[in-house]
Structure formats: C-alpha cells, structure tokens
Amino acid sequence: EAWQAGIFLPNAELGGLMLDASGGAPGSDLQHAAIRRWTAPRDGVVSIAGQIKHVSMNGDGVRARIVSSRSGEVGAWRVFYTFADATVASLPVKRGDTVDFVVDCAGDDAEDRFLWSPTVTLTSGETAPRASRFREAGIKWSALDDFGGPPEAAARPLTPLEKYAQILLLSNEFAFVD
Predict the structure, then answer these.
(1) d(CA 78, CA 63)
(2) Which residues contact 113 (CB under 8 A, 6 or more apart)?
(3) Residues of the chain whose pLDDT is less than 70?
(4) Angle subtended at Cα 9 by Cα 7 and Cα 12, rounded to the nearest 5 degrees
(5) Count of Cβ atoms closer than 10 Å to residue 166 Cβ
C-alpha cells in the first residue's frame, strides 16, 4: 500500500521516506525527497489540482513543489501544520514530458507526514472542431485513485513452436480422434 525506504521505518539511511495514495513522508535530508511522477501520454495542456497538508504541529513543516521536465518549477509551497492549495491552471506538455510532485523535509525531518494526492487533467491542444468529445472533456489521473505498485508483468509472447502446438490442440482433427 506504500512505496517506502525499507521494510521497517524509519530506515537507518533514509529516515521515514515513504509515499502512499494519500501522501507520505520525505526522507531524512534534502537529498531524499518523496516524489510522485506523472508522464504525459500525448501532447496537450494539463491542469493540476490538489491540496498539500502538513499533519503534525511538531517539527518544522515540509516544502512541496511541482516540477515540469519542460518548464521547470511551476509551483512551490511551504506548509507547517496547515494546508495550501497546490494548483496549476495551465501547463503545456508534450508526449513523454514528466511532471514531478516533490516534497522534502525543509530542514528538520521530524514529524514530516504530509497529505497530498494531486489530480492531473489533460486536455487536447486541438481546437474544438477537430477535437473529439472525449478529448474536449479531458482525461483525469488521480493520485488517490490511481496509486499502485509496479505494473504487472506482461505475459510473454508464445514462441513459434508454442503457437504451432496451440493450433494443433485447437484443431478439430486433434479434438476428435477416431
């Protein structure tokens, strides 16, 4: 249910670094941030909505940033036992561009649990007459709903010999032996 630095937290080297569907905790220093990444499946414009919240009244809070591989940092927020609307109204993307949601400890890593499950909406860059209704409506990805582990391994394609055996097994002559 979470990506984390090790079996047990805190980890000796990375601290409490972990990421789950609703948020997470950064690592023990500024070099070990909790990062959620979204990759653009096609060209278009994205809007990002979400709220970053630091949940403890102890510690010194966290720093959250949205960083685009094409545009650089597009938003930054510092929260300590409060919340901030972490939104970007419009960000052009090309297929393969990444948008990173980065949270670091902002100094001290004590009590840095945060909640942040952004939603990315991709709309087409096409004009309305050429765009389909599907593209006009946009496609949404929600960190809360779409969080998961590594993708399941795809089934290995059959070899030519295995395909031949499959065809023989499915043939009528093989099924009904006289």
Answers:
(1) 4
(2) 16, 23, 24, 25, 54, 55, 56
(3) 125-137, 150-151, 153-154, 174-175, 177-178
(4) 95
(5) 11
The 3-state secondary structure of the chain, one letter per residue? CEEECCCCCCECCCECCEEECCEEECCCCCCCCEEEEEECCCCEEEEEECEEEECCCCCCCEEEEEEECCCEEEEEEEECCCEEECCEEEEEECCCCEEEEEEECCCCCCCCCEECCCEEEEECCCCCCCCCHHHHHCEEEEHHHHCCCCCCCCCCCCCHHHHHHHHHHHCHHHHCCC
Give residue 55's Cα distance to chain centre: 21
Per-residue model confidence as pLDDT tens digits over 70-122 = 999 999 999 998 999 999 999 999 999 999 999 998 777 778 889 999 999 99
